[in-house]
Amino acid sequence: MNRPYLQIDNVGMVFDTAKGSFTALVDVNLKVARGEVISIIGHSGCGKSTLLNIVAGLTRNTSGVLLLDGKEIDSPGPDRAVVFQNHSLLPWLSVYGNVKLAVDKVLSARMDRRQRHDWTVHNLELVGMGHALDKRPHEISGGMKQRVGIARALAMEPKVLLMDEPFGALDALTRATLQDTLMDIQAKLGNTVIIITHDVDEAVLLSDRIVMMTNGPSARIGEICEVALPRPRRRLELTENPEYLRARGAVMRFLYERQRHPKAA
Amino acid sequence: MSVEAEPMPQTTGMLKLPATAVLLAGLKRRALDVARVIVPPLISLAVLLAIWELAFSGKGASLPPPSKVVADTWELIAHPFFDRGGLDKGLALHIFESLKRVAVGFSIASLAGVLLGVLIGSSSLAYRGLDPIFQVLRTVPPLAWLPIALAAFRESQPAAIFVIAVTAVWPVMLNTAVGIRNIPQDYRNVARVLRLNPLEFFFKITLPATVPYIFTGLKIGIGLSWLAIVAAEMLVGGVGIGFFLWDSWNSSLISEIILALIYIGLVGLLLDRVITWAGRLIGGPGTF
Ligand SMILES: Nc1ncnc2c1ncn2[C@@H]1O[C@H](COP(=O)(O)OP(=O)(O)O)[C@@H](O)[C@H]1O
Ligand SMILES: [Mg+2]
Question: Where does the record place the ABC transmembrane type-1 domain (chain B) (predicted)?
């Protein structure tokens, strides 16, 4: 078998808190192939963000090793671009300026001024934001902000695109169009994507594999569900598809039978 | 990117009449808006002046009524720029001298305040070391600095400027520090993913994220500067609105004192507005 593109090996995370140490993750093992879309699902507080931040390098794992394309992950970097849940655009920069900041920093060795400008505009057009280059973040809707956040991440040409509940704060219709945009882009560019979600349908629709996490503390990967649906996927055609229903059922049973949320009544 | 250069729609002619009506309605609404802002203060001002006039127009009143203030000081109101040499100058020239001192002192305070604020905002060691000292120093009233400043500089001009600077520096510094401490973790994470170096982080994240806080500090600072300069000038003398005030008192020209007070208030308001405007210009519309 090929060497996996991203390899998470026995990763554990113990936080030092005021009330003593808190074990968030134990023995997380995962291999991700290049071009694969992985979603991570689990009840809130189980450690999904912690795991994603470890892959991003924003949080240092307390045990285990992570390898991306043969190199150990020990600090954040643009090869693991993150799309944050609350968009985290810089409010004093325009839509264009937010993406350009990333492009200037990450690609200035390879591209001259003209090319960096074109690349910035190209990525914003890719997410359908070419019409709003000069708008400030507070002038656009939540869905548009997430599009810009995705453009900023894509513009860095990351090896892995990391998304922490990117559509969690959006209404259902906006969320559906953003999911479609993401699938289109991923089909075109072949990105490797790890996306956190708490929405079962979103997980099944988007992913090649769904990683299900047990409840914390000491959360681990409980099950992994393959989604053998051909791409491109159309949400309407999937509603009756047996494979879709099987995957959906598997995730539902995991979440609501075996890992009933302790606080949920 | 390109602006669409479509021909004007054919219906323009047909729309002419309604368009004029819309324009008129818009003007009317604007006029109403302006009236809503201007009329109430005008009314309260008129009432205030009337009460003042009534209360102090009797014989033996300790203060002159507004009509007498205007009559007494008409020469000063009408000729703000006269200059008979020495300290005998128009009010505008006095105010201009005071503003020059404020400009110098406030600039020093702004620069020092932002630098110190950045220092104690970004280093917790510096914060722990310096904050207690600053907390003590900032409670010292402006004029209490004057004797020590006169002793140190041996001249009134730099002493007055020092008093302004030391008065205005604290709010600028403390607000800057708060701004830096309040930079959202998200922005820091973005910077870390992009691998911004400390210099890039300072100019691309810290400074713009802190601008609204800095301007809040500057706004408080400019107000305190203006308070301090008038008081300092009363003591150190030389051309300036504070000196003018004190000189009028010594000559028992109460009307001139009242006129000076009004000018001081108006200039103070103007200074506040200038900083607000500069903040909006630099920090964008969301700054205040
Ligand atoms: N920096 C931290 N210090 C202490 N505990 C933390 C820290 N970050 C997260 N945790 C804890 O780890 C657990 C997992 O958090 P998180 O990864 O944010 O969950 P999720 O994203 O799945 O909702 C939670 O119990 C949370 O309180
Ligand atoms: Mg989370």
Answer: 95-275
pLDDT range class, residue B287, cuts 50, 70, 90? low
Q: Which amino acid type is present at position A25?
A: L
Grade residue B78 by pLDDT with cuts at 50, 70 and 90. confident
Query: Which ligand 1 atom is nearest residue A13's CA?
Result: 12
What's the mean pLDDT in A204-232? Answer: 94
Identify the pLDDT of residue A261.
Answer: 66
Residues 7-46 of A with CB under 8 A from B: none
Q: How many Cβ contacts (< 8 angstroms) between chains A and B?
A: 55
Note whether B208 contacts A90, CB cutoff 8 Å: yes
Say yes or no: CB of residue A192 within 6 Å of ligand 1: no
Average pLDDT (A129-134) is: 95
Mean pLDDT of A230-235: 92
Closest approach of A227 to chain B, Cα-based (Å): 31
CATH code 3.40.640.10 for B75-283:
no
Is A265 a residue whose pLDDT tops 60?
no
Give kind and range of the element (H or E) at residue A110. none
Give all strands (DSSP E) within A150-240, no chain letters: 160-164, 192-197, 209-213, 221-226
Three-state DSSP at A39 gives strand
CA of A167 to the centre of ligand 1 (A): 20
- In angstroms, the CA B122 to CA A123 distance is 34
Q: Which of B3, B190, B197, B207 to mutate to test binding with chain A, by most A CBs within 10 Å of its CB?
A: B190
Q: Which residues of chain A neighbour B192 with C-beta distances below 8 Å?
A: 57-58, 75-76
pLDDT higher than threshold 70 for residue B145: yes
- Tokens for B25, please give them: 């309605």
Give the residue extent of every domain in chain B: 75-283
* Region of residue A26 (left: phi > 0; alpha: psi -120 to 50; beta: else): beta
The rounded distance, in Å, linking the Cα atoms of B142 and B138 is 9
Question: Rounded to whole angstroms, how far apart are CA atoms A135 and A96?
Answer: 8
Strand pairing category for A37-41 and A209-213: parallel
Determine which residue's CA is closest to atom 21 belonging to ligand 1.
A49
| Sheet with A37-41, side-by-side order of all strands | A82-83, A160-164, A192-197, A37-41, A209-213, A221-226
Out of A31-45, A68-82, A141-155, B63-77, least confident range: B63-77
pLDDT above 60 for B7: no
CA dihedral B72, B75, B79, B83 (to 10 degrees): -100
Residues 92-131 (A) with a CB less than 8 A from some CB of B: 92-93, 101-102, 105-106, 121
* A86 near B CB under 8 A: yes
Q: Which two tokens stand for residue A178?
A: 């953003």
For ligand 1, say whether the CB of A214 is within 6 Å of any of its atoms. Answer: no
Q: Whole-prediction pTM value?
A: 0.81
| Mean pLDDT of the region A46-61 | 96
pLDDT above 80 (res B17): no
